[in-house]
Amino acid sequence: MVKVGVDAGTKSYGVFVLEEKKLYEFESSEVRENPESFVEFLKELNPEAGAGLSGYGLPVKNFRELTDKDIFLMTLKKEGSFIGMSSVIRRIKEEELNFFTIPGVIHLNTVPAYRKINRIDMGTSDKVCSAALALAEFEEENFILAEIGYGFNAFIALKNGKIVDGIGGSSGFPSHLSVSAIDAELACLMKVTKDVVFSGGLKSFFEDRNEEFSFEAFAEWILKGIYAMKAVVDENLVVLSGRFAKDVKKYVAERFDVKLLKGFKSGKQAAEGAAIIADGLSGGEYKEIVERLELRKASGCIFDYVTSDLKKFFFEKPEC
């Protein structure tokens, strides 16, 4: 009875097998170049259920039922691949593996609609996975999750075990790799593409100045995200996860009570959380976590909350 969680990270893909408590990791560049080999590896695991690889998220759906429009909504890329993910998704569908999509924060009915105004990325599906892992690991149900990854930072507010708000990696504060939210005046001077989303972070800032990367400066931006979530959930507990969680812990701990998300200690918390969700969706040990997060009740589309006066500036009319 193998349950598998997959996280398509900026730097690497993680595949976590729940029963073995074992992580398999692949460079994202390798998956992009040879998605068939990666999916063949998944097939050899012979999973009873898998979850993940959902990008910006989609209400729970079996990969076998995915349409081209679904894949676009998860990746926001019609052609090619988004870190190889589109090709992997299509291959899993062709192989008819029993994989499920995972919603993003914007799809969750536990988040009020007014908090979703003109947002697409309030926390991608992998951030929901990390929240599921945190609920499985800790007794607390009220906290702020700060995911500090190689590419992006995201902040999720949980109240009574439910996600009630979030700031996504591409809509918040500068991270290690990404500019995240862009000054509107700066955007008017640029040709904004996916390449821009993966540029302009603190890594570039310090490299431009031939200076050593400052985790203290990095932590200041992270604290801004945490304080933004504190406006919604007035809690002092912060759960840190992601590649750079340990590097910023001491700075965040000066202001908040901090716990590191360790999970099963594989180092890929989102993959572990995806495996927990796969287990819960198939009626396993973690069914209660899936129910508490109301994942099966997730609905809608990432474009549902874009106001009509902004939609007219889209290159193509957004459709759900």
Automatic annotation (TrEMBL):
Protein name in UniProt: Butyrate kinase
SUPFAM superfamilies membership: Actin-like ATPase domain
Organism: Ferroglobus placidus (strain DSM 10642 / AEDII12DO)
Pfam families the UniProt entry points to: DUF1464
